[in-house]
Amino acid sequence: MRSAATRRSRTIGSSPIDDAERSDESQRIAVAQAYIDALVSHDGASVPFAPGCTRVEQGVKNGFSGNHLRRSLTRGPQYRIINEVTPAVFSVHGDDVRARYDVLTRVSVAGRRAGAHVDETFVISGEGLIHHIRVKFHPFVRSTEMPKPPPGLNSPRTNQIIKWMSRAQAWCLPEDQRSTGRQVPSRRAGRAADDDRP
Q1: Residues spanned by CATH 3.10.450.50 within the chain?
Q2: Nearest CA to 99 among 85, 89, 112, 113?
Q3: Contact, 130 vs 50, CB < 8 A?
Q4: Is 0.70 surpassed by the pTM of this model?
Q5: What architecture is the 10-143 domain classified under in CATH?
Q6: pLDDT tens-place string over residues 83-116
């Protein structure tokens, strides 16, 4: 049993985590990230698959060995359409590394781009090899058009707004001022003018 002097640990919440365990988690995350990077680079040679690695997608097995998965990442048409991925959010529980991220494809129609929200779990051994992958995804469509700028001062929409404001202001004036557009002096103003006369 290690002494307090030789044991270095950090605490997250109420659970102490050894530095060695923390480093092991980081290594597993790096292995999962290598797979995610290969989705965009289309280079499966750098992904550390175990020889008997399998993959299950939406409940259907579509990866049968490490070599098969490498070939799929490199040449598979289902991966070649992937253009980019968002930064993954990872969580580690033992040998399981869960990654959640979005995939954006090259498929774009009428200014809208196809993608998917991905929830993927990797079973990674202590040797740093991927033994199994489980993935679920939910497709989505995202607009690729730039937002329209606000209307300028000389745009038809702005001119229409100015007309509405002018009409509203005219209706707020007394009836005797609507036709001439001139203000009629009030009785108080007329009385003050009479007082100023010699």
Answers
A1: 10-143
A2: 89
A3: yes
A4: no
A5: Roll (3.10)
A6: 999 999 999 999 999 999 999 999 888 889 999 9
